[in-house]
Amino acid sequence: MEVTRLGDTFSLSGDLPEVGDQLPKFKVFDQNNVKVKTANLIGKVTLISVVPDLDTPVCTIQTRKFTQQADHYPDAKFCTISNNSIAEQTGWCAAQGVENVDLLSDEELSFGYEMGLYVPNLGNLARSIWIIDDTGKIVYRQIVKEQTHEPDYLAAINALEKLVSRVDL
């Protein structure tokens, strides 16, 4: 698959998993530098927001929008994955005044290669949204073709609502 950035076309590192596939095995690291494996995400419906570089405006908007939705879906887990280092992610949180966000670092590119989302010529992950059910099966995927664009938030939230209930705060 290919994505674009400012109109230039770039190939992804591999084949993307399809809806209905099991989430591939990978490892990423949380803000405490603790390894998080695929198995750690299974057991609860999870929305995975993938951003190319947390320190850019569109990635910040995407991360904030999903973080704001998380409280409305207590039966779901929300996480953001980028290949920024833990230090860069921590710095972003401090600069943005954000505390309750589940950021995972794929600096080692395990997630990127296993999911086929790494964009070698750009050095980052392709912007995308993934939802897995409690067994780890992919039930929704959205690959954003133009990487400088925001994802379709409403489509992702509508897909999530088919699996879990929304609560009004």
Give an overview of the whole structure:
- The chain is α+β, with helices and mostly antiparallel strands.
- It has five helices and eleven strands, in the order E-E-E-E-H-E-H-E-H-E-H-E-E-E-E-H.
- Strands 7-6-5-10-11 form a five-stranded mixed beta sheet, covered by helices on one side.
- Helix 2 links the parallel strand 5 and strand 6.
- The mean pLDDT is about 95.
What's the overall average pLDDT, rounded? 94
Q: Largest beta sheet, briefly?
A: 5 strands, mixed
Q: Report strand %.
A: 25-35%
- Name the shape in a single word: globular
Give the neighbour order of strands across the main sheet.
7-6-5-10-11
> Ranges with pLDDT <50 over ≥5 residues?
none
Kindly, what is the distance between the CA atoms of the first and last residues, rounded to a whole number of angstroms?
40 Å
Q: What's the number of extended β-strand segments?
A: 11
Output the number of helix runs.
5
Order of SSEs: EEEEHEHEHEHEEEEH
The helical percent reads 25-40%
